[in-house]
Amino acid sequence: MSLKEKLHYKYLLNPFGLMRTKEILKINPTIIPQRVASETPTITVYDFDATTINEHHCIALKECTKFTTTNTIKWINVDGINKQTIEALAKQFNIHYLITEDIQSIAQRPKTDEIDNHLFCLLNMLYFNNDNASIESEQISIVLGANYVITFQEDATRDVFNTLREKLKVAGTKIRQSNADYLCYVLIDLIVDHYFIVMEQLGDKIEALEEEIIKTPDTKSLAKINQLRKELIVLKRSIVPVRELVNGFVKSDSALIDPNTIKYFKDVYDHVVQASDLVENYRDMMITMQDLYINQVNLKMNEVMKVMTIVTCLLAPATVIGGIFGMNF
Length: 329
Prior knowledge:
The protein is an alpha+beta fold.
């Protein structure tokens, strides 16, 4: 049985997505989460300045030490969360242990912290799964230092940073001529921009469902409404707190943030506000759609009752006559 058939079979057994409810809402911050550690994290380093760039793929952990003393800008990307790798990098770059704990956490609320000589932020990358019309999230942690940015990703097979990788290869671009804070801005901006792609795909599902309800409303339509409302919970939980996260960079007095870069973070802030408003608009649409479904069902019931009333009226004279002549005078 293929993956698509399994998902379809699972949907038939559980049309109202009760397991998805548990998956979304089962979050208890008082319980220590058990993360499945990656056995072989992949470390990729982009070491660059305005004129040169060096790419180091799948390097050993001990090789990262040499990047702590260079004056170039470094982007160190770690694919796969592993406690030993995180603690070793934290030791090499003097990252506070509270940051390492947040990196290893699960289902954290997006946030930003300034600890010692580092700015740390944690947020979710979102992806839309067309097979089961659900939103998948991946937690990413970003550590900004004096002339480096370290990112920690859970999934090594996908991210939204390919545009950044292409720009880094082109000499003379803004990112090649800027400091590490601008690199941090670009990373956050790409994540936020991808939110709109995910919301557009979800919006297509909402529009298709609205048309289906108007034409042929049934129990499956109600199940789809319930499912999409749960996906909106995932969207809201992932996007709305990012507004505070970006605002933390805008209002930060850290020497790591150049005053000229603040205007770029303000632009990201505007995008996050717009994304939050779209989530609320989708939420209102789903509430309206549920009312539309109820109205359509009631309208169909009224049509049935109208037909039954007409039939009853047509048969009433015959019933009266038959009742009169059938009586024993």
